[in-house]
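Support reply, case 0932

Customer input (verbatim):
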Amino acid sequence: MFPFQKFRIFILSLILTVCIGNVAVVAEGETTEPSVETLELSVYQTDLWDYTPLFQTYVDEINPNVKINIYSFPIWEYEDNIKIALASGDTPDLILFPNWFIPDFSSTEGLFTDMNEIDSSAVSEIRSGTVKGLWSTINPPGRKSVSFVPLNSLPSVMFYRTDLFRKAGLPTQPEAVEAKLNSWNAVASLGKIYKSKTKRALLGQPTSIFNSVIQLKTPIYYDNKNNYIGDKNPQIKKAYDYVVKGMKEGWIGKYKDFNSLENAVKSGSVGAVIGEPSIAQSIKDWVPKLAGKWAVASVPERTYDSGTLSAAIPPMKQNSGAAMELIQWLAGANAQNMAFNNFGFFPANLEALGETEWLNESDAFYGNQKVNHWYVKAAQTAKPDALYQNHSLELHSSFNNAIIRLIRNAKSDPTKEWAAAVKEAKKIAASN
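Our regenerated output:
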């Protein structure tokens, strides 16, 4: 047993048995067959997403000769527990990683097993079956080793009010909206028209817009040799100025978080929302009476994809082959469909994304639009998320926080907030 507190252990046993210690208890009346040697795998996961049902399916339907011991940790102490396990060498066979943890681990060679050394053909099969942008986020092209396998996609689309777009003189059909709002420069121009016609903001997510505009030119905070360039990259200031100007002109609403965005959608203060596919249900819950007045189109100049969860294998594990087989199954269509149904994790597996019946489902709330086509298009055309390089996320927070301060305090000076963010980011870069 791993020497940590505050975890829950779920034991998945062979076939339909309950395992007490090392003794298999079968249902009454069943005949106990000669036992097959059981291989035990240990898995770390965060309690945000309990993969127990998926592991149970794997044991029941794919490999009944495996017993999986699951160690589930609260998210606030999960990263520290992973680091402690790696430092001590007392590691599980497999770790499910929230993807925002990965930059803190990926820069250290040998911290995790290169899965190519376990089964290069399996890695190749997973890579070819996974959306490209996401794969390149988690495994950048310049890196030969594959230490992480992404298990879901997180593309963004634009959800918009067709009635408000019509009032502003904008197109309402998704294809026409995509053609009209095909760049962030076009969004700025039409945003001002939208504001003048409707007296409302076109978009209400300043930091999300900043994240999109900053990624139009990469690299952002580090060059290809890992040198800090955040104080020299004009795209960062360009994205910051874009958002500041949009907020000043009123077509970007000053909403700082998810709760304030919810209120804006409910009040009709914004005409569009940028978000991942799971936001579709949130909008339905927020404004059920507006069914038929929403639609889905692409994000200007393509979205980026960082995913949510990946799998990794610590080094020198005796059961690495069995762990690799489990990862290959988790990266497949059946497992990712289960994760989609259980957690709303959008699939990254191309087979799952190509299921005809699902693609052709129409959504009455979104004007009977086949919205899954748009989600899949976003995932398949997404760019790698450049903010997942090295410690870019940590640096990026300095500028996001500057924008949030502008939202919270109308008297804040954008020039001073920019200068403070540049100084803070440079300090963080120097300490990494």
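We compared this against your earlier run and they match. Two observations from our side: Confidence is low (pLDDT under 50) at residues 1-32. Residues 414-431 form the longest helix (18 residues). Please reopen the case if you see a mismatch on your end.
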